[in-house]
What we know:
Blueprint (H helix, E strand, L loop, with lengths): L2 H21 L21 H7 L5 H14 L4 H7 L5 H19 L4 E9 L1 H12 L2 E4 L9 E9 H12 L1 E3 L7 E6 L9 E4 L2 E15 L6 E14 L5 E4 L3 E7 L41 E8 L8 E23 L9 E4 L2 E10 L6 E9 L8 H9 E5 L5 E12 L2 E10 L13 E24 L2
Parallel strand pairs: 2-5
Antiparallel strand pairs: 1-3, 4-5, 6-7, 7-8, 8-11, 9-12, 10-12, 12-19, 13-14, 14-15, 15-18, 16-19, 17-18
Helix pairs in contact: 1-5, 2-3, 3-5, 4-5
Amino acid sequence: MHATRFAAAVTLTLALAALLVAAGPTPAPVTAPTPSVKSPDATSVDQLIAQLASPDHRKRDAAQQLLEKQGAAVLPQLQKALTHPDAEVRRRVGDIIPAIELAQIMTPKRITLKAEKKTMREVMDEIQKQTGYKIEFYLSTGDGPNYSFDLKDVTLWEALDTIGKSTGLFIQAGSGDDRIRLAHNGNARPTQYGGTDGIFRWTAQSLQYYKHVDLTQPTPANNETLTFAFSVFVEPKLPILAVEQPRISQAYDSEKNSMLPPGANQFGEFDGRGGFGGRRAYYGNRYGNGNKTFSAQTQVQLVRQSEKATSIKLIKGHVPVTLLSEQKPEEVSADLLKAKGTKKTVGSTSIHVEEVTQVQGTNQVTIKVTLNEDNKDPNDYSWMNSVYQRLEVQDDKGQKWQLQGTNWNGNSPNHVQMTLTYGPLNDGNPMAQKPGKASKLIFYKWTVMQHQIPFEFKDIPLP
């Protein structure tokens, strides 16, 4: 992703707009007409790209806006234009591409579903088909067929929340893979405290109020804490790698008292000197301590100002996160059983396959591999912990094999030696497709991006 260039382009556009406003209206009674720009359906993409070199900045701006609106369909032509002979065209195309990519990856999956007396498996299969996400669920009341839903162009989270209200199915926290798991909570219904924003979702988990009086002091000290915990979710296409301390912009109770702790600034941020609101990452540094997940739990510290208050009327803010924006597979070996001695560099990671062994009498294969990373941070072990999620074995049928065991040696922030055992994902299941022979070793190059997930909770009852 090119989030930096995209941000720079936005900043430049705002700066130009500010200059135009500052200049004020022209003294002339007649305003010069705005140059006409043909609509996208009448103007070819190549013409719009050429127009980015126009001597009239209004035409350049208009062409850029039209290209951005056309979205991913024009990316191939824009990629070619990165080598355009005109410097202004290259610069603007370099801004348009990341803007389109960002909009594309932030667009939620949408679902339209009309089900009449279907089994829950049929309902979930249709959602899987429309989103491409794998969904697992468990219903203690049985699968049906007695479920009816009428969903029209709703997001994934809206669809699952609607189903949950009727069935008691709720979304479980992720376990590092790309599957959405739903569990049955008896007669309970999914929490009413939460919300969604595109591919993101947040739900309240708990509110803990603790009072403590220290009687060992000459003057007994009364200590109170109020901790609000909640979970954030993201669609599986953009896993969470790291979560920082939430920033609170507003927090007040039903009596209109501020609930921001003393020492927080107007954004709910602390000075970072050990206070609860310090800007530490919960899941590590660069790669989230090696764990990718589509959900994460976090918490904020609040202050109860009045015993008369019955609820948190509003708490609002955002959670800074690191997201895994791209997982690009790179082939290390196309013939795994003969890969001994293979060396491969993928991005900043050097890979050396030292040994490959077929486990006698089984379908399993064991791989001894050494990896080195160009990591300048002596305290960052998160890259090392991410390695097992970035290596993959496939058989000659293209099926992904399951990691069934690991052994680590010589670990450091920039070096790890591992022995990994892989086997067919459905080995032992008579209904599963028969596995092929271990064929490929893949290593995924990760690209990360920073983002802020907004959240807003209303009318949460106080203890």
